[in-house]
Amino acid sequence: MNGLPASTKHSNIRHKMKVAVVGATGLVGSKMLQVLEERNFPVTKLFPVASERSVGKTVKFRGKRYKIISMDAAVGKRPDVAIFSAGGSVSKEWAPRFADKGTVVIDNSSAWRMDPEKKLVVPEVNAGVLTKKDKIIANPNCSTIQMVVALKPLHDKYKIRRVVVSTYQSVTGTGVKAVTQLMNERKGKSGERAYPYQIDLNLLPHIDVFTENGYTKEEMKMVNETKKIMGDDSIRITSTTVRVPVIGGHSEAVNVEFERDFDLDEVRALLAASPGIVLTDNPAELQYPMPLFAHEKDDVFVGRLRRDESQPNTLNMWIVSDNLRKGAATNAVQIAEYLLSTGILKLKMKKTAVEV
After folding, report:
1. CA 350, CA 187: separation in Å to the nearest integer?
2. Quick check: 120 and 228 in contact, CB under 8 A?
3. Are 123 and 140 in contact (CB under 8 A)?
């Protein structure tokens, strides 16, 4: 689904779509602008929004420079869609203000994900839950998104009982400061740090803060969000999340126990035919998913499919995806595309001169 064209040649009707990108100067916000442009989303008015210190600076979109505006100014513009990537506290304060003006907010923070009144959406999995009443829609955690895209067709066929997942997550998931720390360490330079320890030539089994049960928030996000997106609280999930010195995407080793037995060839066929998935599973030719190949792509790459020989009805799989794209920006834009394609979000029209 590549969105709708902003205009049609030889027509005197022009589609109007006002879009705000909140957090436009960050890693994810910048990627959102890139994805909106690449997928030809019908933006006729763009409102890039960032913190007060960035107001007046510019960002580039479709070859033009756009001035960054404040939150207050953006709310006053009454955009049709506001895509947020500015942190939970900002979303909690400002998403309702946009929604009160009739704007559909698609929020990339964790602020609304587990709110029982808000939908948590991965279009390939559960877009059908969306209605015209949904004014604040939550974009899931990056590591959750890629996993549920791969699990959904298998759950529909074999019914998942339990998932054990270990992640290998890119420093880009933390942000610009983390990327800078990694690159500084590789050059032997000192500088601002995002992590409590060196990340280059190291792994950190620590993403987000630790909770009382000994798991990190990132690990519990994967548990709770997966159940909500899949619409099945009976799935048992346990997670270990690890930060690795990688740029390009997140990787996951996933062990899945099903209620029913499966045929590996059938599993491969199911995954290959499912939207958003690229099957890369040919060990004999050393073909398997890697962040190096997932970088700047919108797909979820799945491979290393094999039976768990230690117990019945259990599959091992390896899942990789670009966390800034499908894990954040692309998923948010796909939600907006779905809203347009179903008429939940309607394009406004205005008369224009006929193009020749």
Report:
1. 54
2. yes
3. no
| pTM (whole model) above 0.90 | yes
DSSP string, 247-284: SS-EEEEEEEEESS---HHHHHHHHHTSTTEEE--BGG
CA distance 143 to 116: 21
pLDDT tens for each residue of 131-157: 999 999 999 999 999 999 999 999 999
Residue spans of beta strands (DSSP E) within 58-140:
58-61, 64-67, 81-84, 104-107, 119-120, 136-138
Residue with tokens 């979000």: 345
Mean pLDDT of the chain: 93
**Domains by residue range for the chain, with CATH:** 13-140+329-351 (3.40.50.720), 143-323 (3.30.360.10)
Structure tokens at 267: 């599993």
Which residue is listed with tokens 């698609």?
A: 106
CA distance linking residue 209 with residue 89, whole number of Å: 16
CB atoms within 10 A of CB 320: 29
CA distance 68 to 66: 6
Check whether 56 has a pLDDT greater than 70: yes
Gap between the Cα atoms of 266 and 225, Å rounded: 27
Active site residues: 142, 250
The rounded distance, in Å, linking the Cα atoms of 302 and 268 is 9
